[in-house]
Design goal:
Layout lengths: L1 H9 L7 H27 L9 H15 L4 H8 L8 H4 L9 H12 L8 E4 L5 H9 L7 E5 L2 H10 L6 E3 L11 E7 L14 H14 L1 E11 L10 E2 L1 H12 L2 E4 L6 E7 L8
Parallel strand pairs: 1-2, 1-4, 2-3, 4-5, 5-6
Antiparallel strand pairs: 5-8, 7-8
Helix pairs in contact: 1-2
Amino acid sequence: MLNKIKKMFMKKEKMQTPEEIQKDFEELEEQSIAREEAALAAKDIDDVPEPIDTEEAVADVMVDEAEMMEPTDEELEELSDPNANDPDYLEYSAEAVGYENRQIQWDTYRAILNYIGEEESILDFGCGRGDFERFLDTEYPDHNFDYTGIEMNQQLVDASKKAYDNEVDIRCMDWFKLPSDLKEDWCINIGSNNLRYDGDTKMTDETYLHNTIDQMMAHCTNGSIVLLSSDVLGTDDGLLNWNAGTVLNWAQKKYGACALDHSMSNDLFVLIIYNTKTEKDG
């Protein structure tokens, strides 16, 4: 390129001074370099990547990962039914009956047993698998507790029969339809009024609780013990959370001798209602 430029200078008709020649040479050299750079830029323009839309790129990656992580039919079935992949889930799991683990379940049962004397009989409303009887048998093998469990869920009743070889007296019954002659010293209800099982959309939660306690009092001779979820923390945990004072006031007005224990935790409280009526009183 530079040789061609020099020849062009030699063809000029008018003779130039060395300074003018040098100046023209520099100008042409600059123009030549500019043309070469322009040509290179034009040649490589197709190779320049388009600007990246960061948000769009991240979204594409998330979509790709979501597609890769899409659960299979098997996994979906397992999520909807824990028992599908663990055949012993209903029979032995503490989670299946509402507890995080066995230790918490047993500690809860110990709190309830504080109000029941040795060799007193128990009618358990919403007993699940009848684990309370297994707890008594394990922790107090020398005591003679007469236990009967009432459970509306047939699956849990079947699980109990399988897990405990029919050794636990558990009956699949609606606790609002118990025979009048079924009575025990104590009726207990451990958390079963923290959810609704009846499907009656017209009956309020409060009426449902009151009706349950009325049934318990009709089937006990000494009294009833109810474990309820408290509204103290004000958390939305999907349970029916009860105001301890309101429940106690209702029970005192209707049944008289009552006690309230909110010492086990902020989440739970125990209502104890003593049956002061005699058989003669009806």
